[in-house]
Write a structure and sequence with these properties.
The chain is built from two helices and 25 strands. By secondary structure, it is mostly beta strands. The protein has a five-stranded antiparallel sheet with strand order 4-5-10-9-6, with no helix packed on it.
Length: 315
C-alpha cells in the first residue's frame, strides 16, 4: 500500500489526535490567558493549586503548599488524584463546529445500550476568554464504550467580532463523579486554523484500466458520529497531460459509488474505487503521462478553496 500524505501550509484546527494527558496541561499563566479564572486553574498530577494574597494562582508541590499557607496563601485543591478520563478533540468544519470525545465510564450506566447523556453543567467553554454555550448532550460511541461524542456549535461572532484564525476555544469538563471521590477538571484548548487533508491511493493507481482505491482523510466532512458520511466525486478534479480537466464524477472513471464514502462512523477517512480510463472527454491517456487529483475543499475558514493535490504518473 502506498499512502501519500500532503499537509497544507496551515493545518486544520491544528490539534493532536491523541488523548490529553495531565503532563500536557498548560501553565497557570497560559490557562488564565485563555480565560480560566485563577481559582479554576488545573494543575498537573502531584501539584496543588494555590492563590497568592494578590489573587495570582500557582501550582506547587504539597510540601511547598504547607509552607505557603503559613505566609497567607490559600489552598484551592488539597489533593489531585490522577484520572483515567480524557478529552480527545478532532478537526471539524470551517470554524463553526468543534467535535470532541469524553472518555468517562462513570457516565456509562446502561451497559447494553448506546446512551445519550445531558451535558448540562458538565462543561465550561470559552472562546478567547468569553463564555459560550456548550453542547446540549453527549452520545456514546457504542455499547458499553464509556466514550461519548459531543459537537460544539461555535457562534459566528464573539462580542460582535467574527471568529478568526488563531482564536482559541477552551473546553473544561467538570467531573464531579470520579471513582476516587474527588472533583476534577479536564482541560483542552483548541486553536482555530485552516483545514488540511491527507490523500492517498492503494492498488494499481498508475495503470490504465486497473481498479484502485482513492482515499482522503478529511475531518471536515465527518459530520455524523453514528453513520458514514460522504464526499461527492464532483469535489475532486482530475488534471492530466494534454489539457485534460474533469472531475471524478466523470463516468469514464467507472467509480463504484457516486461519492467517497466514510470507512466507518467517525473515521474521517473516505474511499472510492475508480479506474484510470484510456481516454477522457475524447483525449487519449498515454503511458508516462502525469496527472493530479485535486480536492476542492469549500469549507475553509478563509472562505477560499484549499486544494490538496495527489500527483501520479501513468505506468
Amino acid at each position: 500500500m502506498i499512502f501519500f500524505q500532503i499537509l497544507l501550509v496551515c493545518s486544520v484546527f491544528f490539534l493532536v489526535l491523541t488523548p490529553l494527558s495531565f503532563a500536557d496541561l498548560d501553565s497557570p499563566r497560559k490557562q488564565i490567558k485563555l480565560g480560566v479564572s485563577p481559582e479554576k486553574v488545573t494543575c498537573n498530577e502531584g501539584f496543588v493549586l494555590m492563590l497568592r494574597p494578590s489573587g495570582i494562582s500557582a501550582c506547587v508541590k504539597p510540601l511547598t503548599a504547607e509552607k505557603l499557607e503559613d505566609k497567607g496563601w490559600t489552598t484551592m485543591i488539597k489533593k489531585f488524584v490522577k484520572s483515567e478520563k480524557e478529552i480527545e478533540t478532532v478537526p471539524a468544519s470551517s470554524m463553526s463546529v468543534v467535535n470532541f470525545y469524553i472518555s468517562d465510564h462513570d457516565l456509562n450506566l446502561a451497559h447494553n445500550a448506546v446512551e445519550t447523556v445531558s451535558a448540562n453543567g458538565l462543561f465550561e467553554i470559552t472562546v478567547n476568554g468569553v463564555p459560550i454555550d456548550g453542547p446540549e448532550n453527549m452520545i456514546e460511541t457504542g455499547f458499553d464504550t464509556g466514550r461519548f461524542f459531543a459537537k460544539l456549535e461555535l457562534p459566528d461572532t464573539i462580542n460582535g467580532v467574527p471568529l478568526n484564525q488563531d482564536d482559541v476555544v477552551l473546553i473544561r469538563y467538570l467531573d464531579a463523579s470520579d471513582a476516587a471521590g474527588e472533583k476534577r477538571v479536564l482541560t483542552k484548548s483548541v486553536e482555530l486554523t485552516k483545514t488540511f487533508a491527507k490523500v492517498g491511493t492503494s492498488g494499481g493507481g498508475s495503470r490504465i484500466g486497473h481498479e484502485f482505491i482513492f482515499r482522503i482523510y478529511e475531518p471536515d466532512a465527518n459530520r455524523d458520529s453514528r453513520d458514514e458520511d460522504k464526499i461527492p466525486l464532483s469535489s475532486f478534479e482530475y488534471r492530466g497531460d494534454g489539457g485534460i480537466r474533469t472531475t471524478l464524477a466523470n463516468p469514464r472513471f467507472n467509480a463504484n459509488s457516486g461519492s467517497l464514502i466514510e470507512t466507518g462512523p467517525n473515521t474521517s477517512t473516505f474511499e472510492v474505487k475508480i479506474k484510470i480510463p484510456r481516454e477522457l472527454d475524447g483525449k487519449p491517456i498515454h503511458i508516462g503521462d502525469k496527472y493530479e487529483i485535486r480536492y476542492i475543499d469549500r469549507s475553509t475558514p478563509s472562505g477560499t478553496d484549499e486544494k490538496v493535490v495527489f500527483n501520479g504518473r501513468i505506468g
